[in-house]
Amino acid sequence: MSDQTMAAGFATAFLDYAVAEGVHRDSLMAASKLTEDDLADQDTRIPVASYRTLIATGIEATGDTSLLLRHVLETRLEMMSIVGQIVHASSSFPHSLNQLNRYSRLMADVPIPGGRDRFELVRDTNAVWLVDHRPCDGSWMATEASFARFISEFRRSAPEHPFERALEVTYAPPPHANRYPELFRVPVTFRAARNALRINPVWLDEAFDGGKDYVFGIFTRHADALLDELATHDTVRSAVETRMLAELHEGTLSMDRIARDLGLSRQTLYRRLKNEGVTFAQVHDDLRRRMAMDYLSADKVSVGETAYLLGFSEASAFVRAFRRWTGASPTAWRGD
Prior knowledge:
- With about 325 residues, the chain is of the alpha+beta class.
- The protein folds into three domains: about 1-65, no CATH class; about 80-225, no CATH class; about 235-335, Arc Repressor Mutant, subunit A (Orthogonal Bundle).
- It is about 50% helix and about 10% strand.
- The chain has 16 helices and seven strands.
- The strands form two sheets. Strands 3-4-7-5-6 form a five-stranded mixed β-sheet, covered by helices on one side.
- It is globular, with a radius of gyration of 21 Å.
C-alpha cells in the first residue's frame, strides 16, 4: 500500500551496507526520495515504498539480488529498532516472539489476515516450526529477510545451539538461490504451502542470558509510547485498508467481516467512513488502484499476476478498471 510506513532505522542500516558494497550514497538517496533528516532518528516513519526503492536501487547497482539477504545476516536488529532491544532483553525465545508480535508495527506496517499475530510457533510430531503469516504475494524478498533476521540474531548470540533446521517458502527459487546453502545453511523447500522455519526445539525452554526485567521495562515503556503516537495518526480508512490489503486477492471483501475485525457494527463502520468522506466501495477501489501502480511500477509481476493479486477474476476486468483509473492500459502505463 502506498501509504504504509516503517521505521527509518532499517533504511539507514541498508543504506550504509549498500554504500560499503560500493553503491553511491547520493544515487540511493535520490532514487528513494529520502533526505538526511528522514534518517536522523531510527524511529522516524518513512514510506515503505521508499525503502523498497532503496533496496531495488542497491540491487541494480551491485547486480546482486542477494544484497538484502546478506545485509540482514550481517547486521543487528537492536541497531535499527527499539524492538531489537526488547527482543534481546526478553527472558526466552517464546517471550521474545510475543514481544515481536506485540511491537511489530514499530518496525513496519504489515497487515496480517484476520488480525492474527504475524509469527506463530507450530508444533507437530517431530518438529517445531516458526510460521510467518504475512500474506504470500509470490515475492521472495520480504520472506527470506524475515527468516534471515531470526537466524542472524541467534548465530551471533548463541552459536552453540544452532537455531535453524530447515526452511519452507511459498515462492519459486530466486535468482540467487544457488547462494542459499551458503547463507541459510539448511535444506530449503521452494513453492511450499506456507512460509515457515523449522527451529531447534531447545529454544522453547532455554533462557536468554540477556534477559533483565529492569532494562526490559525501560524498553517496553518507550515502545508503548511510540505505539500510542502511531495510533494518534490512524484513521478508520487506514484501519480498513490494512485489513483489506491482507485479503485483497480474494476479490469480494465483506464489509461485515472487516467491521467485526475492527470491533464495530456494519452501521458504525459505514457512518465513520462517511464522516471521513468515503464509502467502503471507494476505499476498496482506491486501494486496488494504488496497489496496481505499486506492483506494475516495481516491474516484478505480470499484468495477469497483478490482476490476481488484486482480486480480479479475469485479467480483462483488471484492464478495464485500470483504464478507468489512469486512462491507459496497464502495459501502456508501464511503458512495455
